[in-house]
UniProtKB/TrEMBL annotation:
Lineage: superkingdom: Eukaryota
A single GO molecular function term of this UniProt record: oxidoreductase activity
Homology family: Belongs to the short-chain dehydrogenases/reductases (SDR) family.
Name the UniProt record assigns to this protein: Lung carbonyl reductase, putative
Length: 244
């Protein structure tokens, strides 16, 4: 296969999906129109044991659960209510909803925000830095023992973006002078660069020490362009603000 060849996800699942049979998979960012929602539906075809679907509100995952029940009635689903803009909520969600889950074979951190107007998370961080990077950092830290407990072939995937390539971390002023110098795209690139660096450092510090058959698979990826609702919203707001 050439490096430029793109396989439809259905084909990938057909070829490699047998490794997901009976597995527990946690996906963040699940909603009717998100990439994570589609991922959940497609993965259900591979007969995992349990899909843990995370969103801020249960009604966001409802249409996805309905489709999974229709397509793969034997696949169990569990709702994980978690606001990635609130570090305390992440900890509470993991402690309460996941206390009885001992192993997670695959963790897919897909939730993210793209170029919103300036805002802050509950903890006071610029929203994109907080949601796209800090939240994933904490979630991975909290769930690492459960993923490691799943053993050989377990994986953690963070969805970033090609925006990471031009991203720079402004260590002197991560929060854009409290919004005064905020540029949505620069902040998006910064948050994505932070995600990529996090996975790289995690891989270097951990995987190298733990190489061998029990090693985790750590991935940070860009899935390509998809015209999602948040991109549409960003485009509409740039049009209404006189942008292109
Ligand atoms: N779309 C693209 O073309 C593209 C390209 C490259 C990379 N990406 C990356 O791919 C990921 C997913 O993109 P997408 O197109 O699926 O975006 P999307 O349609 O906007 O979906 C984002 C998901 O993240 C959730 N989310 C946002 N803020 C959250 C928070 N504070 N707590 C919990 N969940 C939150 C949203 O929940 P709500 O429904 O509650 O808002 C939604 O389910 C993002 O990380 C993005 O950076 C996207």
């Amino acid at each position: 296969m050439s490096s430029k060849q793109i396989l439809p996800s259905e084909e990938i699942i057909q070829q490699y999906g047998s490794s997901l049979v009976g597995k527990t998979i946690l996906i963040t960012g699940v909603s009717g129109d998100s990439i994570a929602g589609e991922l959940a539906i497609q993965l259900s075809a591979a007969k995992p044991h349990l899909l843990i679907l995370s969103a801020r509100a249960e009604d966001r995952i409802a249409p996805i659960v309905e489709k999974i029940k229709a397509m793969a009635p034997h696949v169990a689903t569990k709702f994980l209510k978690m606001d990635l803009g609130d570090l305390n909520d992440i900890k509470t969600a993991v402690d309460t909803t996941l206390h009885d889950i001992s192993k997670i074979n695959h963790l897919a951190c897909v939730a993210g925000i793209m170029v919103p107007p300036y805002g802050k998370t509950k903890d006071g961080f610029e929203t994109q830095f907080g949601v796209n990077y800090l939240a994933n950092f904490l979630l991975v830290k909290l769930l690492l023992p459960k993923v490691r407990a799943a053993g050989v072939g377990a994986s953690i995937t963070l969805v970033s973006s090609s925006a990471a390539r031009t991203g720079k971390i402004d260590f002197e002023d991560i929060g854009f002078s409290d919004g005064r110098t905020y540029e949505p795209l620069t902040a998006y690139c910064q948050s994505n660069a932070a995600e990529v660096m996090f996975v790289k450092i995690l891989a270097e510090n951990w995987m190298v020490k733990e190489s061998g058959p029990s090693a985790l698979i750590l991935v940070v990826c860009n899935h390509g362009l998809n015209h999602s609702q948040s991109l549409l919203d960003a485009e509409l707001s740039s049009v209404s603000e006189g942008g292109t």
